[in-house]
Design brief:
Structural class: mainly alpha
Largest sheet: none
Shape: elongated
Number of strands: 0
Order of helices and strands: HHHHH
Distance between the termini: 23 Å
Strand content: under 5%
Oligomer: single chain
Helix content: 40-55%
Length: 170
């Protein structure tokens, strides 16, 4: 397995998207290496404790195995890109987990994405809206990655507790 290259972190990079993705991928890799028998997670309910209750979505009820599969799937999407919608639908049906509603966005490279100077106030407003929209989604993505990282760490800790090795490797 190829490990991602870890670059030295400066104080300004602490809140970067790359750092959030690295932390999440590292937590899922640790979870994956710790959980040697994922089938042991089947039918094990998630504890209703303070740590996990803040990480669960309103709709996502399931066992530890479902969350394990979900986290690994998200890691794969980050590392390899999002697969086609039909594959995602099959995965969701097989796991029986629905993700919370999110607004779908589409990207296109059109003439609106140019580096030329603005010709009117309307162009300037559109550019400011794009910047605000980008900042909004970037902040949201960093928040989601942070919660997913906490969830992966929680599942790792909970797995160790379930099999009786709670104090090992900490």
């Amino acid at each position: 397995m190829m490990m991602p290259v870890q670059l030295p972190q400066t104080p300004n990079q602490k809140n970067s998207l790359f750092n959030a993705m690295n932390c999440f991928i590292g937590a899922v890799n640790n979870m994956d290496q710790t959980i040697m028998v994922p089938s042991l997670l089947r039918d094990v309910p998630l504890e209703e404790d303070r740590e996990m209750s803040s990480l669960k979505s309103d709709e996502a009820e399931g066992d530890m195995f479902s969350y394990y599969q979900l986290l690994k799937s998200i890691r794969r999407d980050i590392e390899w890109g999002v697969r086609c919608a039909t594959a995602d639908e099959r995965r969701k049906e097989s796991m029986k987990i629905t993700r919370t509603n999110s607004s779908g966005s589409t990207c296109s490279y059109s003439s609106t994405c140019s580096y030329s100077s603005f010709s009117s106030e309307e162009d300037l407003e559109e550019e400011e809206d794009l910047e605000k929209l980008f900042q909004y989604h970037l902040t949201g993505l960093q928040g989601v990655l942070s919660k997913l990282t906490q969830q992966a760490n929680f599942l790792t800790k909970r797995y160790k507790k379930e099999i009786g090795i709670g104090g090992w490797g900490q």
